[in-house]
Give the backbone structure.
Amino acid sequence: MTYQTPPDAWDCHFHVFEHGAATRAAGTGAYQPMEATVQALDAMHARIGIHRGVAVQSTAEVADYDAFGAMLLRNPRLRGVARFTETITERDVEALHASGVRGLRFAFASFMKQQRVPREVFERAVAMVKPFGWHIKVHVEGTDLLELEKWLRAVDAPLVIDHIAHMRPQGGVDQAAMRLLLDLHRRENVWILLCNSDRWSVEGAPDYSDSLEIARAVLHNATERVIWGTDWPHPMYRNPFEPGEPPPDDARLLDFLARAAEQDEQLLQQVLVTNPAKLYT
């Protein structure tokens, strides 16, 4: 690793399985719980220079909101994003908020194997969490983004689009979904998580250089609403449709971010420190 992070840098997307692979599986998830304990997370973050983090509740495990909130309370450097289930209540949201949760996530990407909820269910959930200042997080691919455009334009709360909507670098910045992504991002409530550029790079490790064009387009589109994450422990790596590769070196992912930002320290400070602090503190 060559890039040195600024103080108070954030990793805004990872998953924790408190009991490792023995965590109770959801049964309907696209993958199984992994060896990803808080202790392993802390070690990874210490190695790459990350001080704060956002744990995202995984679809691989049973959605136990009490357990998720308790894990956050035991680890005060962390904030959280809860996964949406149709059983979530306002009382759950109140308790989760007190534990440090600041967002609600919908898994719409087809490879996640989660049934898309009706629009009215989505909108009721947005209305339920809006008074708490939470953001809505959507895990989508480009095709989902195009299909859900009307839903997303109607969201009147902060909206985070996960993983650059899994844009394929070979499509370039002129592909229809990328044009829509950048247009949505210019709206004052829309944020993008810069993450998973490594997954879709044809060139691959260690540099993922063919993904730089899309990453730079996002970084310079609405700089004040870009955040970054590792996606540790990298489930279904590398291609989620054909998984089986070993996970990447998370330090290399930070190096990729620094290269995408062309080593601009002010820009990196904004993405790694200033912007996530707005959403999560």
In short: Residues 265-280 form the longest helix (16 residues). The chain has a mean pLDDT of 96. The CA atoms of residues 182 and 249 lie 28 Å apart.
